[in-house]
Amino acid sequence: MMDVNSEPSPQAAAERPARSLQFRHRTHNRYWWYNISETAYVPPVLAALSDAEWQLLEAWFEDTERRFPSPGELSVPAISMLWALIGGNGISRIVQAGHYAGYSTLLLGFLLRAMGKRHALFSIDIDSAVTDYTQQWTERAGLTDIVRLSVTDSAAADAVIAARSYLGGMPQLVLIDSSHNYDHTLKELDLWYQAVVPGGMIVMHDASIFAQSFDAAGHGGVRRAALEWAKNRGVQIWTLNGFVDGSQPVEDLTYRDGCGLGFLQKPMVSAG
Ligand SMILES: C[S@@+](CC[C@H](N)C(=O)[O-])C[C@H]1O[C@@H](n2cnc3c(N)ncnc32)[C@H](O)[C@@H]1O
Prior knowledge:
Elements: H1 10-15, H2 44-47, H3 51-67, H4 76-87, E1 94-97, H5 103-114, E2 121-125, H6 128-140, E3 147-151, H7 157-167, E4 173-176, H8 182-195, E5 201-205, H9 221-233, E6 237-240, E7 261-265
Parallel strand pairs: 1-2, 1-4, 2-3, 4-5
Antiparallel strand pairs: 5-7, 6-7
Helix pairs in contact: 4-5, 8-9
């Protein structure tokens, strides 16, 4: 008879799908990426986790699925872009506008820990209940030295002061994934562009035509705000999948996230 306290046999462990491969064929819409025909592998952003980190994230997936109708996490393509940008450049001072249930906070926290960083992610959300929830997971993950959560409006001027103080300098990277509202995004861009270090970047999720429908006021969302703001300031903007309007099947997209990703970089003054 099998001893329930014993470790699973090597054979049973080998038969269990590795990490996120178990998400393939799940029907909840949060697992859409894992069902693409060409993604039958564990994405590098999840493969890089330690076993303990993966187990915590797996528990987070289960818990958020029970508690949130839509856990609202960044897609695998979007978190992978950020992961490469941060990990490939030793980025140490990051601000996030919008942490919700904590997915991007946990994954960026795990990455920053692997990079040996402390006080590296200052994350803002206007909702105190989701912040309490994310705080619990951040503590469980042992990331309290690396991540600070703040309840405030991500367009509030004092958020910049708090972020600089926690990070020990001007942010190098600001991730905007908050209201999706045109007017609010304009305010965030005004605020955080002047706050980032020269050469630093603002990355905006939901910068596609498709994602304009996320603006509850119907004013054109992140895409309209980002394009107008960049044009008025004479700042270059690059949007990945900005053209996606929802008619393109994910199987045909190269960058798979139809919500798009916008990039603004603050130029450095020439040294010469
Ligand atoms: C799409 S979710 C963020 C998901 C998160 N980045 C992740 O990958 O798990 C958007 C979050 O923005 C927050 N938000 C909305 N309006 C905001 C505002 N004005 N200031 C700060 N946060 C806001 C919401 O409360 C929500 O938690």
